[in-house]
Amino acid sequence: MPAAPTDARLSVRLDQSIKDEIADAAALLGQSVSDFTVTTLLRRSKEVKAEESVTRLTNRDRDLFRSIVDDEAAEPNAKLAAAARAFERRYGTDE
């Protein structure tokens, strides 16, 4: 990771053995402990955010969801209709 101006700090208390393990890994990659820590934490934080933005369904729930979405005879309930109107007011329509 290229050196960049920094304006924030993160302090972590940990066992010496953990710090040594991190330092060894950083050295293997030719990075400072600080750069290794930042790149590793940033990569993992992005992974967590991506994982948490996905809803995983069982096959049964997926099939149920698809059957509801694909049901052309279904009418939206009052809350769904209100949400659609609010969305259109805020973002417009594609029509």
From TrEMBL:
Family indicated by similarity: Belongs to the TacA antitoxin family.
Signal peptide per UniProt: none
Keywords tagged on the record: Toxin-antitoxin system
Name of protein: DUF1778 domain-containing protein
InterPro entries recorded: Ribbon_hlx_hlx (IPR010985), TacA_1-like (IPR014795)
PANTHER family for the chain: ABC-TYPE TRANSPORT SYSTEM, COPG FAMILY HELIX-TURN-HELIX PROTEIN-RELATED-RELATED
GO biological process: regulation of DNA-templated transcription
